[in-house]
Amino acid sequence: MARKLISFDWAIKKILRSKANFEILEGFLSELLFTDIRILNVLESESDQEDKDNKYNRVDIKVTDSQQQIIIIEIQYSRELDYLQRILFSSAKTISEQMPKGKAYADVSKVISINILYFDFGVGDDYIYHGTTRFIGLHDDSELELSKEQKTLYTANKIADIYPEYYLIEIRNFDDVAKDTLDEWIYFLKNETIEDNFTAKGLQKAQETLDVLKMKPAERQVYERHQAELHREASLYESTYVLGKIEGKEEGIEKGREEGRLVMAKKMKQAGIDVAVIAQMTGLSIEEIGGVS
Question: Please, which residues bridge with residue 113 across strands?
Answer without folding.
Answer: 72, 166
